[in-house]
């Protein structure tokens, strides 16, 4: 299978490397000239491409010559402004719609969901007006307008390996969100889910939440990941009641029957 990955970052690079090891022909883009050699060493055909939001770089047509295009470009809404990512996707759609690409996977985020103090499912956010991240919801609609088969994966907080929850709260005092349930997903499971979808085209043209089925509290996750890596435990304040959401992965389980490697964030694999 010919697979192109737009955005070889923390998720895209190991995804591309694993697919290449398994015998797929993989092309990967990066915005870093220095990273081209890294991709090449992993037997990924490297391309230096940017969406600023207009497409820049040489090789867009070559990238689009594929069976599956994985769009993995973080929105960075705070840094670039609320309309930047939508503009990126609009420009990308113009490149994709008449290209040889057969199928498109868009890596979205569970940040589309508002905190409704309950379990949330895919149908809770269909339109930007329903979303806590309207720009992201609008980008999803643009992907759905493509003539190609599409897949939208709303990923939870990406964790695993050096992304250790305790690292980000070590030594902090009076954290008020300790009782909020987490919506995390291990990077290996995102890669596993994508690979499973590649083999199951009958369940495409749908939106799926990609989140570990279990939702321990932030307090539990932070404290569990402190001692093994020597981080100073944070302290918590229970004075506030915080809004929350529990993102359901039941649709993924029902339609794909995916066996999670790490169903409980308390048991994620981490490495310093």
Keywords:
Rossmann fold, NAD(P)-dependent_oxidoreduct, 9 helices, 272 residues, seven-stranded parallel sheet, two-stranded antiparallel sheet, alpha/beta, single chain
The CATH topology is what? Rossmann fold
Strand line-up across the major sheet: 3-2-1-6-7-9-12
Number of beta strands: 13
User: What would you call the structural class?
Assistant: alpha/beta
What fraction of residues sit in β-strands?
Answer: 15-25%
Annotated CATH architecture:
3-Layer(aba) Sandwich
Could you give me the name of the CATH homologous superfamily?
Answer: NAD(P)-binding Rossmann-like Domain
Major sheet summary line: 7 strands, parallel
Oligomer kind: single chain
What's the end-to-end separation, in Å?
34 Å
CATH class: Alpha Beta
Helix segment count?
9
Give the count of structural domains.
1
Chain-averaged pLDDT: 96
Order of helices and strands, N to C?
EHEHEEEHEHHEEHEEEHEHEH
Radius of gyration: 19 Å
Q: Overall 3D geometry?
A: globular
Low-pLDDT parts are none
What portion of residues is helical? 25-40%
Give a brief rundown of this model.
The chain is an alpha/beta fold and 272 residues long. It is 28% helix and 20% strand. Helix 1 links the parallel strand 1 and strand 2.
